[in-house]
Amino acid sequence: MAGRVLRALPRLKTVNRLQVILQHLKMSNQTDSTAEVLLEKRGGAGIITLNRPKALNALNLPMIQQIYPQLKTWEQDPETFLIIIKGTGGKAFCAGGDIRAITEAGKVGGKLVQEFFQGEYRLNNAIGTCKKPYVALIDGITMGGGVGLSIHGHFRVATEKTLFAMPETAIGLFPDVGGGYFLPRLSGRVGYYLGLTGYRLKGRDVLKAGIATHFVESEKLPALEKDLIALKSPSKENIADLLNSYHKKCTVDQEKKFVLDEHMEKINSLFSANSMEEIVKKLKQDGSPFAIKQLETINKMSPTSLKLTLRQLREGASMSLQEVLRMEYRLSQACMKGQDFYEGVRAVLIDKDQSPKWKPPALEDVSDEFVDNCFKPLGNDDLKL
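== 3-hydroxyisobutyryl-CoA hydrolase ==
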């Protein structure tokens, strides 16, 4: 009898183990569909899916804390040949960082105001230095933090649904996530224009501005992803070839001129001034409908943000990505201590009255000394990359 019971034990163990595994699979399926970010390996590809469709896939700290270590693991893994990042829901790739959470933490002096920016900028740097080809499918809204998740990688695939903007000056912030690195490197002064005014680029214009590397119809993305996953031990060149083949077949808006083409001469001259006051003066002197429109936009922005942004872009033009991110971390902490960020978020995102009361209210009231202080090193608290 004892022998029979003993002999049955291994079988029982197996059954129990099976039940545990099945239970675990059931759980992982349930949690997966509700998880804010999905991380999976398919073929030779590591796939990051931003999964907060109701929040337009806005990036929060828990998402950052999951993506970063996985990215580092895939980078070291000899069986992972490329990394793909995309968003769910059909409306947005990623509409930005979770500004509300940061605002609430900032008001009560919470640690999130350090941890979020540290985590986000480290992730931006990890993408910018990633040794594996990194493909961002920027379908839909791609703003702020979403730009940081895509722009520093090797390939950015835009579609007719892509909407790009760095709208931070409207909420008392500045175009961060490495904006000081990539914006001044766009052709002419277009990056300065985008960073200061928050101008929105759509569809093929995102490619023409030099932000996307490829342009593909939105409905072709699942096929493209499938083909990327099916590549056997691909090199960066193989991936580029596949993306190029899809890009060449896409005829959507092919004939359309770049939306800023007719204004490029003005953008290059008006936005090349050394100070915000000088840019405003040039716009007033120009007096064209285009210049007047830019004046109206700039007058709505936080004067402090405008001054910080112009200097950020001018200095970032000759810095490495790491130096830019360190500089931007200093600026982020200065903004968290100021008042314009909280007022901008209130006016634009919470009360939505669109009439922020900036302090100080005018460019000439933002002193050079104040701006200098925002750029000062933070000693032990500086960003470590």
